[in-house]
Amino acid sequence: MKAAFAVVLCLLLAVPSVAAIPCDADSNGRISEGEMVGAIFSYLDVTYRNGTGTAPSPADLQDASFIYHHWGGAPGECTDAAGRTLVFERPIRAVAVMSPRTLETIRAIGYPMGYVRGAEHSILMDRQFFPDLVGCRAVGSLDEPDAAALASLFPDVVFVPVGPEGNAVADAASALGIPVLRFSCASPASVRDEALAIGSLLGCLDGAEDLCRFLDEQDEAVRSCLDGLSADQVQAVYVEAFPAYIACGAGTPAGDLVLLGGGSPVPAGSGTFGVDDGVVIAAAPAVVIKLVGQDPARFGGFGDRLPLRFIEVRNAIGNRPGWSALPAEREERVYLIHASLVEGPQYVVGLHYSARWLHPDRCAALDPAAVHEEYLSRFCGLSGVSGTFVYPGDA
Fold first, then answer.
1. I want to staple 56 with a disulfide (CB 3.0 to 4.6 A). Which of 60, 86, 268, 323 is the partner?
2. Share of the chain above pLDDT 70, in %
3. What is the CATH number of the domain that holds 199?
4. InterPro entries annotated for this entry (predicted)?
């Protein structure tokens, strides 16, 4: 009997939607094993043996089996990155996602892309990285959410980035009565916990744990290379955001990446902050890392095979007043990296590049291009994708 029960459960779990818990015969807010077994046999009796009893609908039985298997028979709880806890009484079958890094994480843990019904408009423009968004509709931008599109789709939940930039979308969705979860999935320090929280809700916990193991393995490879690194070997690194003269300090994904790679962001500071030529020259960075991929440096990434803009920006950095005297310029240790390798699950690729740039002797065995290829193939279902992500290309 248990074997048959397991087989039926496996068949029902093929479909992973918010209403009262189905198949809860005693209305106590939980589905017990007995209730699940009873619901299955009632369905089989009525459907295949012309039974006269009451049976759940196929949709209710599918939802109940998901809840029993993935949520332990209770409503699904999810605490988002803003510390808010939402409770769902049905599986999540339709989502709208307003952050590319969150969508990337959702895909990486194995959530079917067919359930992504809406996305921020710029995500839909990146068809090379998200080719599987078939039938997905644009729901505006973070600054200008399309309330009409959200109302038309009415997804089970909208995933919105943490922070002020996501408030307009969160307010628009909440006004419509659509649940909102705040996740950014950008920081190396938090992407694991976010992936696990999302995976637990979406029935993709195994996939989330697999992703976390991969990230841990790549982190450990870098830590092994840097084992025994002394304080005087830590490299001073000026990390510049997409606009010129905006530094990335501790607490930013790029700044944290430098710290993990055996460097120290200079000038010292947290978050992003403005600098000038004099401040950078006084900091005397041994390495300069410039971020590209977002305005006003929106180039590179998938499909951008020609490094012309990379070369242009690299040359402009060298021509800034007084920068030719920087140790980073003298030693030709100025690098450009696409944001996709700095934020989200792909941060481990950027970490491997950063470690090699900062400590080429210690980290010569690291192969960031191979890590990138494995991630894309294993977690994104992408292969043979070309583009420019770092410059110089042989860095």
1. 60
2. 95
3. 3.40.50.1980
4. ABC_Transporter_SBP, ABC_transptr_periplasmic_BD, EF_Hand_1_Ca_BS
